[in-house]
Each structure stands twice: as structure tokens, then as C-alpha cells.
Amino acid sequence: MSRSIVRQSKFRHVFGQTVKAEQAYDDIRVSKVTWDSSFCAINPKFLAVIVESSGGGSFLVLPISKTGRVDKNYPMVIGHSGPVLDIDWCPHDDNVLASGSEDCTAMVWQIPDHTLTRPISDPIVVLEGHSKRVGIVTWHPTARNILLTAGSDNLIIIWNVGTGEPLISMDDHPDLIYSISWNRNGSLFCTTCKDRRLRVCDPRKREVVAERLAPHDGIRPMRAIFTRDGNIFTTGFTRMSQRELGLWDPTNFEEPIALLELDTSNGVLLPYYDADANMVYLCGKGDSSIRYFEITEEPPYVHYLNTFSSKEPQRGMGFMPKRGVDVSKCEIARLFKLLDKKCEPITMTVPRKSDLFQDDLYPDTAGPEPSMEPEDWLEGRNEDPILVSMRDGYVPPKSRELKVARKNVLDSRPATRRSMSTLETSSLPPQLLERLLEEIQNLKATVLSQEKRICDLENKLSQYTNGTD
């Protein structure tokens, strides 16, 4: 009886390729902050990279088409008083981005479609609720304006950024939270923590519904993401510091569906998940390779496909949503590799001879329209993402105002700055007020110093004039 030895899969021959040098982004000073985030966020319109900066935190936002050398004076997004640790584009508006920082705040920004001519320093809303640095920001996948933040105070806060109000707060984690991932419809999220536990949380019930101690035996940081089937894919370390990946069923955490050792290295493996192809791309900080796997329902469940290797190690990585790939070239994924002073796009392609649209490679994917309003989600409703066809490619819409049922701070541009004489300081958050007063004192000190310098120069000039007379 004949039996097929080679597993049949349309993704078995996926190959990675670095774009030409002129299609990369040069002269970007990538942040050197010691935090295990990707430092990069991508959508079909923009590339955002956390960069090295003095005197606070900033990040760079470039139109995706603005390749080549980046001018050293290109305007940044500035506003945080401490280094930026994480950034995330809103899945329902390609012009809205959230950032978390060491200054204990998260901020939401509106990025204009046109090329920036001046720095953006006015966030649409400042979210203040954490007592320590905010290391994770992630948007809800289907509900409008819902943002989750997690800080080093071990607190998780879910916000309605349309009103700037905290909706839910959870303090179930006794130690530092390493990663958070929503499931497909946003009814649950999973977390990994320094206490070596993997947790599944129901935010609306404000409770942990499942947990597993040490899915990986090592003490180094873990990462976890939900798959489209509701399973959880994890990366971590063995006791002998070998890197390891696992697949778990959250309804039965006793035994893993799959557990696979990879190699020995110090870098934390960051997983990037493609729900349409059910593929995972693993990128380790400090690695010069990207491994990719396919998750299926047949043993061994997690199938190694291939490795893309390059010469230089990566500092971070960005992952383009499926609606931003080029369907005419059978591109199924695009990653953006951060080097010390450069960002290199890497395309993942399925080799096909036909130039026609490949239906089997591009099922309908999550589109930019939210499935429900914040109030609907808070009341217990669950909705899968609204899907769009990739047949004609995806054209990003122009910058648009967000439509919400009640007044939304995202609907209007930031208000014109007023002088301190007309500013109602009592309405400002204490932290922001303290920062403003400190800046005013510094400016006054600078002015006094300059006035003294002018007086000294005038005196010298007067003495010189009298002497010549």
C-alpha cells in the first residue's frame, strides 16, 4: 500500500527575500532601551519605529512609500518624557497609533496622511492610570476604541480611548507581565508573567479563567499568542536554556498539544502570527534568522517550514497586516527587520507560475471596520472581525474621523494651545501639570541667564566706548 511521505501543504515552499537596498529605510537610530518589545509597528500606510532620543521618548513615523535615506532632521512624534517602550497601530484606523512609555503614561496619536513638516507633540489623549512604566499597549481586535495597557506595576487597564476613561482594571498578576495577546474575537486574552505562569483572562468578568504553571521549564521570559482555533502558541526556554515552542489547549492545560526544542540562544523568540495561513514566524532579538512554522490539525500539529537567514542580527521586527501585502506577487507576509541604523523589509512569497489571483492563498481577511462599539463589547457581546476580500488588493482609505455614538476625543483635532494665563491648571492631570511647571521654570532660568549675559556685554561695550573717547 503506497503512502505519501512528504506532507502536502501549499506553504511548504514559502521563501523569504530581502528587498533591494533602495527599498529599505536608512539612517534610523533604533532605540537601545533594554525592553523585549518589537520596537516597530507597521500598517498598510505607515512604518513606525521607536528611536534613540535625548530628553524624553520619541518615535519615527514614515509613510510606507518613503524608502531610502531618512533625513536626520525628519520630524518625530514627541510627547513622552521618558523612553517609549511599545507602540501599536489601531486595527480600525490606519492613522491612529498608541504608545507606552517609562513616564507611566500611554498616549494615543493621530498621524496625518501628508509627510510631516514639524514634530507631533500633542497626543489626542493621555491615559494615566499606571504607577510604573507602561511596557505593553495592544488594541482590541474587533471593538472600536478599546485599548489594553500593562505596566511594571503588574496592572492591566482596558481603556475607551474615545472618552479617555478606564473601563476595566485587573491586578491578578503578582509579577512583571511579559506579553499579552487577544483571541480572535477579543473575548479573552492570554498573558505570560515573570512568575512563570501562562494565564487566560476574561476581562469583562475580571477573572483568570485558566492558568498553567511553567509551560516552559526555564526561568527566562516567555511569549504567548492565541491562534485562530482558540489554542495558545508559546515560546520559552527549557531548564538547560534551550529555546522551545509549544502549542496548548486552554481548556486542558495538563499536556501540551505539541512541544518542540529549537536551539540554544539567549534571545527571546517573538512570535508573529498570520491567522489566514495559520503560520507563525519566530524572530529572536540578536538572531540573524527568521524561522516559520505551519499549525495544522494533524500530528505533529506544529510543522517546521523553513528558515530565512541574513548576515546581520535584528534589533526588532515589524509585521505587516495581511491587507498590506502584494497579492500580485503571491506575497503572503512582509516583515520589517530593524538593524542598528536601518529597517529592511523582508517578503515571504509562495512560488506560483500563474499571474492570476490565488484564491487558496488569500481567504477573506480582517478589514479595517470594527465589528462593534465599546459599549456593545462591555455589555458582553462578541463578534468576529469583519472580513474583506483581497482579490483586487487593498487600498488604504484616507484619514477619517472615527464615528462613535457619543462624543469622542478622536473625532476632533488637538485643541489650539493656550497660554498659561488662560489655561485652567486645575483641570490638568497632576503629572502633566508638574511637568509643565518644571518646563516654565527652566525657560525662566534660561531667560534670566540670557538677560545677565546681555547686561555684561553692554557694560563691556560701554567701558570700551568710554576708553576710546
TrEMBL record:
The keyword Glycosyltransferase does not apply. SUPFAM superfamilies: WD40 repeat-like (SSF50978). Keywords: Coiled coil, Repeat, WD repeat. GO terms for biological process: actin filament organization; cell migration. It holds the Pfam family WD40. WD repeats lie at residues 77-119, 127-169. One of its GO terms (molecular function) is actin filament binding. Residues 4-68 form the DUF1899 domain. Belongs to the WD repeat coronin family. This is Coronin. It comes from Takifugu flavidus. The lineage of its organism: Eukaryota, Metazoa, Chordata, Craniata, Vertebrata.
